[in-house]
Amino acid sequence: MKRIRSILGSFRTKVTITLVLALFLVMSLSDFLIYQFSLNMQFSQLREKLMMIAQTAALMIDTDLLSKVPLSREGVNSEAYQAIVQKLKKIKEVNTPLKYIYIMTKTNQEGIWQFVVDPDPENRGRKSNIVTSYPGDKYNALRFPEMLKAFSGTSADKKIEFDEWGVTLSGYAPIRDKYGEAVAILGVDMEAKDVYQTQKEVHRRAMFVLLVGVLTSVVLGFTISSRLAARIEKLAKATRHIAAEDLEYKVEMGGNDEISELAKSFNQMASSLADSRNKLHDYFYRVVQSLVRILEAKDPYTQGHSERIAEYAQKIALHMGFSPEKAETVRKAAELHDIGKLAINENILNKKGKLTDEEWKIIREHPILAEEVLKPVLLDEEMLVMIRSHHERYDGEGYPDKIKGDNINLFAQIIAVADAYDAMISPRAYREPMSKEAAISELKVNSGTQFNTQVVKAFLKMMEEEYSASQGKT
Description:
The protein is of the alpha+beta class. Helix content is 57%, strand content 9%.
């Protein structure tokens, strides 16, 4: 007994117990912060995803067609209703996590809205006491504050909500007419079970890391050294970086002991979170790519246009000495540069005759529209600048901002040359395609005025090399 008291009362034992408890506290706090951050990040990304889908889908709705839907139960039989239903169903097919997609508009009663189009009326035809979703059916929007904001701009629920259709997380976007006035809102719903499944996986990982932290803290408590406090501080610092969304931060820890292993586990967790975020952004990117392909599929003259200029732009960037990573960023921006045309009437896009001044004004809005569509989900600010500025001219006579010379983003100028060349050699509804030689001649003539001279030189060099390579093969 005396020996036991002696051991428990020793300085070494007290320090060891204190360090074990302190390390346990640090790891628990770290795990809690990471767990909360992960949940918040996942939830935030789901909200951004729903807002992006809702905003993009809203741009595809023809308000003139929408106004023709009778707001009565017989409205489901109208041609306008069926045409819009087909568009909404295609959007759902592309975005499989969606449970519901619908369109509503206001009534004369404050906070009481009414359905216009709902392609998923699951309750239709059941007992009369079950809510349906026919055109004109009323809906109490006062229960959902984010929904009420939808006529002013894109929004999404800040928490999982419950109504007659179940437990869901929803995103909303205004449907605007040609004058920019919001005439209705488009909503998209994701079932709560999909959200909970994501959170369950985060919880499982957090519990695993917590368990590893507890076990490691006990072992490390019995291997006291002068470096222990410094190593704990490194882990605490890494936690603060993760909480600040710096998922690329790595803990630098030498040695092969337990704290070093803990640091590796921490880095692996951070990498896993970063991979999850990148996968979500890749998913958003693929969704937008699909929308670009849908846009180009409507016009046989522009099919493959975005992919071709993306390839040209990437090659030009490489010829100008930019890294493969930068060239890949340019390629991605070039693939999405025309997404804003989704909001432009097809009659204008495919018009065979000369465009009016008003039609040209609408066309010139597409870089701005593209930026507005992509801004909620595209974190790379430089890509947004490339997409907005790809129609600026070197002499300052371009659009939408009339930027001049080297003030224009260089990568946007690369996309401009690639876009112009492909447009010239491609057939259009209003003209025959130019020969490659004629298109190259046009680039040379407009070098220094419409186009950046250095970009044109890089493009011409690339074309010469490809021509030489093809001759060598023959």
